[in-house]
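Re: Re: token formats

Sure, here are both.
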Amino acid sequence: MSTQGADPIYLDHNATTPTDRRVLAAMLPYFTEVFGNPSSVEHVHGNRAQAAVTKARAQVASHIGARENEIVFTGSCTEASNIAILGAARARPDRRHLITTAIEHPAVTEPFQQLAREGYEVTVLPVDETARVDPDSLAAAMRDDTGLVSVMAANNEVGTTQDIGALGEIAERHGALFHTDLAQLLAHRKVDVVAEHIHLASISGHKAYGPKGVGALYARSRAPRARIEQTVWGGGQERGLRSGTLAVPLIVGMGEALAIAGREGRREGDRLKAMGAGFVDRVTRALDGVQYNGHAEHRIPGNVSLSIAGVEPLALMHRLNQVASFSASSACSTDKVQTSHVLLAMFGDTPRARQAFRVSPGRLTTETQLTGFADALVDAVLELRRFAA
């Protein structure tokens, strides 16, 4: 596969997505033409900006079945998770027991570790080899003093989705709030926060073909109400939960991105699912020792995690660097070479965990591109195996 004179194919959409051109078009006027501060509602310029924020808030709310007053704009999904977890736990000091899982993103694990340092007791649920949480294990872990449960909706590394509705119902039945990280899910489907028993949720812009630098928190205002202790102080914007002048262009972009996902996500997901299946079939027919990671059915489209016996992912990435951009580990990892905590939770410290890599095509990826990459991958594996022999 020749790539001379061409950029590598982008196959790392679980790390970030390109901003959709329609989203960019919606954003552009709010950088230069409608530039007012949405808090300055006493004049026309501020009112115009506020109207744009109101529209975007309605778009985000519609995508998850929430009320508009339940959406709080933040600077990232990470910030939304921090506000939700730290704020909800501290708002219920009589419930000192918290539950999360072994495969969460650092945006979730780090706030829980901070709460543990503050004296909260944290239970970390295991997952099976497909990265699924057993609802029975959550039910067994619930206590009278459990205040918060946090389980991600879809894993960024292996693509596995959870039965959020079942897990949320268990938490709600025991009087605990249920938080979920929706970052990887919303490009592909809508959510119903009421039917799925979600009380708090973290939302990303840049994982759904929107801009970087914006996220949102869903905080339920209906019973059971999600009370959140303030963690950010300032001018009182966003119900006092996230003070700071709102980034109107980014918020507009996030709203438009989720509106597009609501219209097109399921159809696009079917396309990505078929492409991914074809990719896996092409690779496994050409190579032995290929293992597919994550759940075969309960998963987001556009995520393929493989482990190939005898091949180190970093060597594979180096050899294919000019062909395609893909990932050998978590999308938010540092420059340290270490086995992902997600894969360790699934497989232990094994070759399968160490040899895993992720290919995540997206909205602009063509079948021809993915087929070409599959062939290049096969050639690279065979070459690396010859060198190792």
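Second one below.
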Amino acid sequence: MDTQTIASQGLLQLHTQYVPKGVSVQNKVVITRAKGARMWDEEGNEYLDFAGGIGVLNVGNAHPEIVEVVTQQAQKLFHTCVHVTLNEPYLRLVEQLCRIAPITGEKKSLLLNSGAEAVENAIKVAKSYTGRSAVIAFESAFHGRTTLGLSLTSKVHPYKAKFGPFVPEVYRLPFPNLYRKPEGESAEAFIDESIATLKRAFTTYVDANDVAAMIIEPVQGEGGFVVAPPRFMQALRDICTEHGIVFIVDEIQTGFARTGKLFATEHYEGLDPDIITMAKSMGAGLPISAVVGRSDILDSTEVGGLGGTYGGNPLAAAAALKVIEIMERDNLPLRAQHIGERSFDVLRRLQETVPFIGDVRGLGAMVGVEFVRDRASKEPYPELVAKISQKCFEKRLITVKAGVYSNVIRLLGPLVMTDEELNAGLDRLESAITEAVAEFC
């Protein structure tokens, strides 16, 4: 056994010995360096990255321009805490976020550290603005792992089990997953039914005048890359306007070019949310998030009611500024469209011959493949997905699962990957699916 292999086993043993079992690891490998869409472990083995740190690396790993600006910033200023003294990267970044956010009118922005923090603060300002306490969320949603985030999240195992009680006054309503609509029912009728259920909830669940916010992902991330129908999204906007409810669009996973637009909101003409939450690829791997919204809403709390010690850290803010520049200059939304089109072509062709592929869906380069035991019952097939994931790893392709039943493979590779890397990764994925299916048949 060579020295590198011994070192690898030693590092994995540290994980077993010192990291709580609740911290899951899908691909048991220790990555020591990465560049773009390629990663290397401590033994020098090369992997293709189709997970992107769960949607964090849209501009790739260790992008040279990001490395440069972070290095320069580190030589000048690590931290001040914005509550003590201001720093330039924070101020420049909120200016840019307000410029690019697809929200009309005057806007303001708050910087934080994680997606869960962004969601928490969006709900806080909505409650402060409206003076109300209730929140509406949707089935199969994922909004974080904090107590409020879990209250909004709609997946029991492993996220919610044994972690209650949760925050009260959270009401969960159906999300129109068109793949799982009743047999024989039209898409339009199914959407109509979902809208009617929401309106009826103001009679059966909660008074509309008690609802502070409604929060939704335009494409559900952990929920399995289910795309919200445009008519449903517009109905939510109209209902929120009618009842004075703050409409929050969670773009933590969909934002920053992933769906073929800078923000998924832009796919829905005239949607105009009140607040958008952002994180993940915003910082290219550094921890940063944001709440961007109408000035009157974000200004509704008292002084000192928002923030945190590390929010808008100068290093992460500098990285985010460069991310925005790269995405606009290199037109990464267009690149996402190309990656998505190529991925859909391969996976839908494979769907024709693999009966366990129930659905291939997504938006731009946010592509999900749902596996079922048979297409008639649409019963989830998580065991097959686990085997496919294992096969991908053996072929040195890093993937990540999704779905309420863990029966979806989701593609979130860096948007800067080359066509050669894209095609190689798709070839490995196709081979993994074919081999796994053969073993299960």
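The mean pLDDT is 96. Residues 147 and 163 are 8 Å apart (CA to CA).
- S.
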